[in-house]
Amino acid sequence: MAAWIVARRSNILNHWCPGNPLEPTPHFLVVDDHRDIRDLVARFLKKHGLRAETAASAGAARRALDNGAFDLVVLDIMMPGEDGLSLCRHLREHGKIPVILLTAMAEETDRIVGLEIGADDYVTKPFNPRELLARIRAVLRRSQSLPPNPEPFQGERLKFGQWTLNIDQRELTNEEDLLVPLSTGEYLLLSTFLARPDRVLSRDQLLDLTKGRAAAAFDRSIDNQVSRLRRKIEKDPKQPHFIQTVWGGGYKFVGPVIQL
DSSP label at 169? Predict the structure, then answer.
């Protein structure tokens, strides 16, 4: 089976009010090789005041995406011909449309791969349409809350304080050119902060920006990662200078950050 729902990144949550002719209605593409599933999902979405189109294959979905503007993708992995993972990868390579996977219980490996290549969430079949709608709303809420992407780094190295982060090599060195090892998670977190200095980032935003939906959505996972990173870059991790806690808000990296 393959069930998709595709979402345009407009300010959907502000427009989730059926019956208001002045506001655009969220538009979804449901792709499933099983007609009963795609029609059921489409009817349920329409019942809740949303627009929904359907497609029976990845090829039909690509044509619909080329010809229309949509707001989110819900994708079941197993499809004949081009499968859902391939289509999900294509979407991630060419844009940032949110993707929700529909998977079978036995497809755990494919589900993990899907999250790793950029899917935002998944629903396991058989599923309750109410759960699917709730997950759609949650994914859209997260995507709307993310800060805008900064301009790409113009240099290969970023300097802050006594530290220099080599983007290409993923290496952190101090002023004496001594290498400080970083885990993948620590590097992603640090580069996220350096790209957004002096901006408060919530824990959910940091999860999305560093790990996507492959991360378990628990605040403590980010707290632990921040604590480990502080121990490596702060003179006094208990009184941090660079990564400051914003009570009730999240964390903020205090600049300046210089591109070398």
Answer: T
CB 140 within 8 A of CB 7: yes
Evaluate whether 149 touches 192 at the Cβ level (below 8 Å). Answer: no
Using alpha carbons, select from 165, 205, 204 the residue that is nearest to residue 182. Answer: 165
Q: Which residues contact 64 (CB under 8 A, 6 or more apart)?
A: 6, 29, 53, 55, 70
Q: What is the pLDDT of residue 29?
A: 81
CB contact burial 187-219 (16+ within 10 A = b; e otherwise): bbbbbbbbbbbeeebbbbbbbbbbbbbebeeee
- What's the pLDDT tens digit per position in 159-195? 999 999 998 888 999 999 999 999 888 898 999 899 8
Contact at 8 Å (CB) between 9 and 143? yes
d(CA 207, CA 251): 12
Distance CA 177, CA 171 (A): 11
**For residues 221, 222, 224 and 230, what is the CA-based torsion angle, rounded to 10 degrees?**
170
pTM of the model: 0.53
What is the Cα 250 distance to its own chain's centre? 18
Contact between residue 108 and residue 119 where contact means Cβ atoms under 8 Å apart: no
Q: Distance between CA 103 and CA 2 in Å, rounded? A: 9
Instruction: Tell me the percentage of the chain whose pLDDT exceeds 90.
Output: 26
